[in-house]
Amino acid sequence: MKQRIVKIAVFLIALIGVNVLASFVFFRWDLTEEKRYSISDATKRLLQNLDGQVVVKVYLTGDFPAGFERLERAVQETLESFSDYAGANIAYRFIEPNDPKLQEELTQKGLIPTNLFANEDGKRTERLVFPGAMLVYEGKEYPVQLLKGNQSASPEERLNQSYEGVEFELASAIRRLTLKEHKRIGILVGHTKVPPPRFSDLLATLQQNYDLYFDVQNPDSWEKGDLLIIPKPDLPFTEDEKYRLDQFVMRGGKLVIFADGARVDSVSLEGTFAQPSALNLDDLLFKYGCRINQNLIKDLSCALLPLNVGNMGDKPQIKPLPWRFFPLINNFGKHPIVRNLDAIYTRFPSSIDTVDAPGIVKTPLLLTSQYTKLLKAPALVAYNEARQQPDPREYNAGVKNVALLLEGSFSSLYNNRLLPNDPRMSSFVGKGKPAKILVVSDGDMLVNDIDYARDAPFPLGYDRLSGKTFANKDFVLYAIDYLMDSEGLITARNKQVTLRPLDKIRLKEERTQWQLLNLLAPLVLIGLLGGAWQWIRKRKYATG
């Protein structure tokens, strides 16, 4: 009897000790294969360093089909994990947006609703849901869209992609709201003929997270930024400007180039004329490890263009036709920038080749389909071609690279080129610090369309003909986040959760058997354990 009391006392003391220790030491043990309940180290650091409360209002709640319920549960589990590391600095609540006034308010604030279709009692029903959240911090609000992913995937796969992206979408929004010091981005508008309103959607979005400045043909200002963007250049760079770009990269600056390999100018009603771009950057990019070719890519996976196919009476007949010079990019490299990204809308892109550059890591990001054909500039691009049925056998150029990420310590183009008495020698850097360069062979990827009726810009990536907004802006923002984020928050986009769907045919045929097994097996197991325990006790005391 005394021994039993001692054992009970030791057990209670150990139990109390474990609970006291747990109040001082926090740890989690994720036993899932994909570590789906773990968050990245960068997210943990962000949450632990919050200096104020972030309130998260989630509007993805209600009576949903299984896929949406899974996404709702993922959001709840992620926010629970956030609160474990942030404590009282993360507060959240789920709100079902049934009120039409609230729905209108959420739409105006930037949350995009989704029509949810379901079959209830044999009747098809439709309702509006808001798969998003609104984050509030110090009076500022920021909308977060939680339903993302590639729209060409099945609904189950897209919901799973959204599931995988919950941590990054919420964490990046928290960082944007709580950021105290903004890094600087320079926009080299002095070399483009594109009017400012055509860049307005991108610039307005970047201004929320970064301090922007414009060079206005002043190369002295380039070194003031952490990152430089060259948007659709039309005018060539001088040797002095190219030298300044080179030294900016040598000092660890990040460079983003959206440049056309071939410039397309309108010449007549029959078509357009493509001629090689002369930007004087070829040798610089070649030294860094890539080359934008002076050609145009034709891809069987492409967008539509409204063209005149003839007259009906005295009026032209306009029809949307496949325009193979506008490839839809839905083939991506293996990198968190483009993971689970939707299709990208391009216009007259060129191919990019990689060349030898010691120590430079080259990662393809955007790739065409395998059914491509190259048109070398100069060339006439005839509108009438859209009316012709293409021969797939001619589209045999294979997959082409449209966006390339270069990372490493670059060597200067001007090594062994400057004379000893050159005044630039005193500050010249021949071997650079670790830097990153993004090269995209389509300058139009940054250019938004204009709604002339409202005199306002359309979202970047919006296609007026289809009414769809492609992922152009997401790609640019994710890329800049990766280039500028020293903490590595974007690595949260690497999270992968494997879909393990049930065999629907077997489920239909064996439904009753599995239901009985799930219902009876636990009861039988408990009965067997109880019987075995009673038998052991009887045998023990019978022998005693």
TrEMBL record:
Domain of life assignment: Bacteria
Coiled coil: none
Regions crossing the membrane: 514-536
Keyword list, A-Z: Membrane, Transmembrane, Transmembrane helix
Domain ABC-type uncharacterised transport system, chain residue ranges per copy: 183-477
DUF7088 domain sequence ranges: 33-135
Name of this chain's protein: Gliding motility-associated ABC transporter substrate-binding protein GldG
The organism of origin for this protein: Runella salmonicolor
Lineage start: Bacteria, Pseudomonadati, Bacteroidota, Cytophagia, Cytophagales
Gene: gldG
